């Protein structure tokens, strides 16, 4: 890992530099960019040490303070300073070294790059890395020199938990590699190899990110508008699928595949959900057979009447179905265009009016309770007008049709998606 640390840090700095273009694209976007990061925790120097010296496994003497600026929700730069005290572990010769550092680091917001917002708005992950200057002060009683200075490469990973829009809890693990470190961490011996990034220590901390600025959210948690739109579109599609899989008329065919989603319960339907009507007279065959058998004039021992009397009685029953609210045209949310699968309801009315030239019809539109009542009344009017236009274009005289705006239908639970779907409709009254 140590041999790749310089490359990783340089890569992070390059990515932050490349983010300047994205900064131009997002400079007018409303999110906060500045934060103060305060952390404290433990450290562990690894190498080099002189013989007989070693550090405590976890030494609780580390603090760091940083100021961070995010060019975009994905990239930023951080300037921070840190302090460590390195002390001996049990069984080691005693030493006391104080370490100071200052680093310029690139910050990559991994959570935004991996779209964490699709499943959480509370957890986040960041990578940071860069270069800096280090300085050590040794115990004068045992060391060969008073101090040692060096350059360093730093790389770390930070987990975040959002507490509020102004504060986040951080947990960080960082590796620091020093180059040109002339002495061991205990200060009692010259470093045998000063040419590479051969001196290493680790820190593990917890702390807070305090967000500055007038906007609601910081870049750490900001989701660009296009992503919000994507999520809204995804939710809409899921909602449409849920609605489409509902079976409003309980005929065994989901509404999304049902061309007649308001068929009469118990009446046989085909694979498309349409009532079986072999003679195309607008009455399902099962109902027509039942009506002819039981209500036809001159019935004798169950024998069917003439087609004229049967049709007359069938038309009377159709009128009861229409006026009873069994024939409807349905609409999508905030739409005045009938759903394609519900156009059969218009066709049902058209067939009745053509079969009964003296009959007239009232076309009544409704809306659900979501939104402004006045707007919904206007929407119900436009829905009724749209259905009337279909009937007129199908050969029914406009004078035979009157339009009524029913406004909001308050008979269902407005918190139920499926119930709201049912009341977004046009229904009819014939006379």
The separation of the N and C termini measures 86 Å
Question: What integer value in Å does the Rg equal?
Answer: 38 Å
Shape: rod-shaped
Task: Give the SSE string.
Answer: HHEEEEHEEEEHHHEHEHEHE
Q: Averaging pLDDT over every residue, what do you get?
A: 83
Number of separate strands: 12
Residues in β-strands, percent: 25-35%
Describe the model:
The protein has 9 helices and 12 strands. An 8-stranded antiparallel β-barrel has the order 1-2-3-4-5-6-7-8. The chain has a 4-stranded mixed beta sheet with strand order 9-12-10-11. Helices cover 27% and strands 31% of the residues. With 431 residues, the chain is an alpha+beta fold. A hairpin with an 8-residue loop joins β3 and β4 (96-109). It has helices at residues 5-18, 20-26, 110-113, 225-245, 285-295, 307-323, 343-355, 373-393, 417-423, and strands at 34-47, 59-70, 75-87, 96-109, 123-137, 147-162, 167-179, 199-212, 328-330, 361-367, 401-408, 425-430. Residues 295-311 have low confidence and may be disordered.
Which descriptors apply to this entry?
431 residues; alpha+beta; eight-stranded antiparallel beta barrel; 9 helices; 12 strands; 27% helix
What does the secondary structure layout of this molecule look like, with pairings?
Elements: H1 5-18, H2 20-26, E1 34-47, E2 59-70, E3 75-87, E4 96-109, H3 110-113, E5 123-137, E6 147-162, E7 167-179, E8 199-212, H4 225-245, H5 285-295, H6 307-323, E9 328-330, H7 343-355, E10 361-367, H8 373-393, E11 401-408, H9 417-423, E12 425-430
Parallel strand pairs: 10-11
Antiparallel strand pairs: 1-2, 1-8, 2-3, 3-4, 4-5, 5-6, 6-7, 7-8, 9-12, 10-12
